[in-house]
């Protein structure tokens, strides 16, 4: 049985956030800003956040030219520009909350690579996109810088489009910095707390959590519950929002002396992405090779995709360098149909947030603020 002390002081909260990734932590901070006296607790199933937030590539990006051209075809110019500006605004909010040094933010630029067998993006399209984004950024966002292809040492690349306003971070240090802030504000993050069910009644929400030692589930109660479990815990979200899980494969090389490559890069419509971290390369992607297997919320290495990442490393990124891989891992993303973040009431006392489609670093702070608005009564 739970003790009297545990029940009396630890289980009743004003706001519970389920899921301690970037969005859950950001939402808890925004709730505290809006309601400083609220007792807030984040329930996280893992020892660390165990979905995407500590397993991503650390790109702090907001716009890719090819992606925008695709979005324009489907959703129109206005929606495509809005999505890019929303991501940029989200990044600004993140940088207001967490200092650049604490999360090792470096504005080394974003680079889109067009491979030999792909279609180049025309000068007319680049200038159309720059015009579209000008009201938000007051400068050109995209420029073609093909002269850099040789200096980076790439093979099989025919066009490089540069976005000077994008950066990269250390994803572990971002979570550490958020934890420090959370602790300083008296918000409690409970790790190893898997939420089994959420039931709402007229006066409160009951949140059941697995207790690994007692053999008895713990009953938390809260006035409001925010659900930030991304594509995981589908059982908690069933019938509430349509989020599809998608696994992403990543590798990191051993350090390499004299690495010339700096910044964040992507190609093949963003299916492949790589960056430097100090003198290592992080490379991820390749989901398109085996989508059926990768549409899963289970962690795991997909050998077919990891082999292809090895090929990309050796044939495209570092064709003249001997390179050893030091780490390989996977993370779980969430996808929705229209790529837009979601904040949605799913009861009188519950709301769901979702940052979407591999852009959580840019979107979590803004989405967390919007979700907090749904959880804090005005
Ligand atoms: C390989 C990869 C590369 C990526 N690269 C980038 C990038 O470069 N730039 C970028 O902006 N974005 C990137 N992303 C996406 C980004 O990481 C996500 O958008 C962001 O982390 C989502 O944050 P979140 O808090 O919504 O989800 P998550 O980080 O997935 O957090 C959800 C949390 O809920 C917890 N949880 C689930 N079920 C329960 C339960 N029942 N009880 C309690 N807790 C539960 C999970 O353990 C998890 O910690 C990448 C993602 C992956 C996987």
Describe this structure in words.
The protein has 378 residues and is an alpha/beta fold. Among the domains are: 159 residues, FAD/NAD(P)-binding domain (3-Layer(bba) Sandwich), CATH 3.50.50; 92 residues, D-Amino Acid Oxidase, Chain A, domain 2, CATH 3.30.9.10. It is 33% helix and 27% strand. The strands form 3 sheets. Strands 1, 2, 8, 9, 10, 11, 17 and 18 form an 8-stranded mixed β-sheet that branches. β14 and β15 form a beta hairpin. α3 crosses α4 and α4 packs across α11. The protein is globular and about 70 Å long. It binds flavin-adenine dinucleotide. Flavin-adenine dinucleotide (FAD) binds next to α2, β2, β12, β16 and α11.
| CATH-scheme architecture of the domain at 4-54 and 173-242 and 338-375 | 3-Layer(bba) Sandwich
Count of distinct strands: 18
CATH superfamily of the domain at 4-54 and 173-242 and 338-375: FAD/NAD(P)-binding domain
Beta strand %: 25-35%
Q: Assign the CATH topology of the domain at 4-54 and 173-242 and 338-375.
A: FAD/NAD(P)-binding domain
Please write the string of helix (H) and strand (E) elements.
HEHEEHHEHEHEEHEEEEHEEEEHHEEEH
Q: Give the C-alpha Rg.
A: 21 Å
Ligands: flavin-adenine dinucleotide
Tell me roughly what share of residues is in helical segments: 25-40%
Spans of at least 5 consecutive residues with low confidence: none
Give the distance, in angstroms, between the N- and C-terminal Cα atoms.
37 Å
Gross morphology is: globular
For the biggest sheet, the summary is: 8 strands, mixed
Class by alpha and beta content: alpha/beta
Number of helices: 11
């Amino acid at each position: 049985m739970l003790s009297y002390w545990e029940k009396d002081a630890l289980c009743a909260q004003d706001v519970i956030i389920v899921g301690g990734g970037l969005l859950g932590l950001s939402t808890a901070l925004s709730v505290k800003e809006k309601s400083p006296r609220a007792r807030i607790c984040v329930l996280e199933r893992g020892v660390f956040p165990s979905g995407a937030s500590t397993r991503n590539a650390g790109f702090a990006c907001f716009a890719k030219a090819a992606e925008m051209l695709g979005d324009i075809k489907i959703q129109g110019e206005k929606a495509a520009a809005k999505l890019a500006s929303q991501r940029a605004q989200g990044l600004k909010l993140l940088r207001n909350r967490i200092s650049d040094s604490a999360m090792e933010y470096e504005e080394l630029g974003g680079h889109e690579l067009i491979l030999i067998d792909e279609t180049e993006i025309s000068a007319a399209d680049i200038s159309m996109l720059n015009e579209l984004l000008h009201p938000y950024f007051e400068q050109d966002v995209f420029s073609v810088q093909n002269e850099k292809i040789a200096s980076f040492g790439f093979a099989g690349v025919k066009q490089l489009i540069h976005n000077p306003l994008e950066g990269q971070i250390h994803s572990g240090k971002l979570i550490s910095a958020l934890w420090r802030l959370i602790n300083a504000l008296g918000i409690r993050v409970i790790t190893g707390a898997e939420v089994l069910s959420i039931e709402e009644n007229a006066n409160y929400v009951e949140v059941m959590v697995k207790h690994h030692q007692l053999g008895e589930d713990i009953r938390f109660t809260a006035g409001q519950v925010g659900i930030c479990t991304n594509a995981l815990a589908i059982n908690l979200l069933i019938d509430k929002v349509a989020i599809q899980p998608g696994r992403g494969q990543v590798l990191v090389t051993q350090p390499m002396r004299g690495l010339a490559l700096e910044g964040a890069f992507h190609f093949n419509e963003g299916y492949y992405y790589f960056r430097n971290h100090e003198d290592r390369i992080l490379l991820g992607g390749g989901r398109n090779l085996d989508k059926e297997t990768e549409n899963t919320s289970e962690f795991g290495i997909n050998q077919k995709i990891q082999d292809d990442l090895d090929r990309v490393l050796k044939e495209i990124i570092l064709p003249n360098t001997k390179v050893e891989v030091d780490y390989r891992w996977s993370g779980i993303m969430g996808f929705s149909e229209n790529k837009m973040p979601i904040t949605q009431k799913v009861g009188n006392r519950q709301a769901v947030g979702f940052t979407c489609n591999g852009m959580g670093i840019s979107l979590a702070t803004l989405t967390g603020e919007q979700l907090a608005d749904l959880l804090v009564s005005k």
